[in-house]
Amino acid sequence: MVTSAKSISEISARLESHLRSLIGPRDPYLGKAKHQLAQQYIQEELGCWGQVSAQSFFAQGQEHFNWSLTVLGSRPQLAPILVGAHYDTVPGSPGADDNTSGLAVLLVLAELLAHAQPRRSVYLVAFDLEEYGLVGSTTCARAWKAEGRPLHLMLSLEMLGYFSDEARSQKYPLPALSRIYPDTGNFIALIGNASTIPKMLNLKRQLKKSGAPCQWLPVTSKGNSLPATRRSDHAPFWDKGYPAILITDTADLRNPHYHKASDRIETLNVEMMSAIAKGLANSLCQM
């Protein structure tokens, strides 16, 4: 396994370091200084494991960037995997869960995968402007499609740190789902389009092995029949016909600090985040 040399406590320490370095309002227009510092940190941390690439795009008269690192696989002829997490926040929120948690796991995955070559090449991408309508991920998905590039799977890391053992702490966008899934928000959720069902089952097995309880939900019609499933950076890849999975703690369906000033590090379960990172790394290496 890729993470055999890394314990949960070691992964937790790396996550804590990333969280404390990145935390703070990172709106690109109202929190510009912290937004720029976050980009510098992303470049430096990804740069420890290879050459970092920038994808430039413009919005509201300002240049923005998606930052990416490619970890080459042992079988580069296979279609690659893309793992993404957005680094911007809503104004006024330090964004611990949304989405410093996903970004921190992305940076840890870069380190874990760099030390154990995966079968497929893995593109690790930090997206900008998710909070302004998935602009960064839409730019990325359009570019991949326009270039005719194949993609084995896209994973969107969106809010991975808030968990609760309280009964009725988990809500659902449809009442029927509450009769199928737990009412306690102590699991990580996988939401994918139909072609990803086998991949979701494999991810669930690896996450469970690493100590992260998991539930999964397949959706049809690119998630349009259940709009709540389209609220992150996987949706543009669904729209372009790619297999994509949202990995999430379900955001405001569980986390009372969503988009608030109270979305702070102290509300996160870093040990659970470590288990998620470990399970994802093992799964990515085997795909």
Q: What key attributes describe this structure?
A:
single chain, 287 residues, alpha/beta, Aminopeptidase, eight-stranded mixed β-sheet, 7 helices, globular
Which helices and strands, and how do they pair?
Blueprint: H1 8-22, H2 32-47, E1 52-59, E2 62-71, E3 81-86, H3 96-114, E4 122-127, H4 135-146, E5 153-158, E6 188-193, H5 197-210, E7 214-219, H6 235-239, E8 244-248, H7 270-286
The helix content is 25-40%
Assigned CATH class: Alpha Beta
In this structure, how is the largest beta sheet organized? 8 strands, mixed
How many structural units, i.e. domains?
1
| Spatial ordering of strands, largest sheet | 1-2-4-3-5-8-6-7
Structure classification = alpha/beta
* Rg result: 17 Å
The pLDDT mean sits at 96
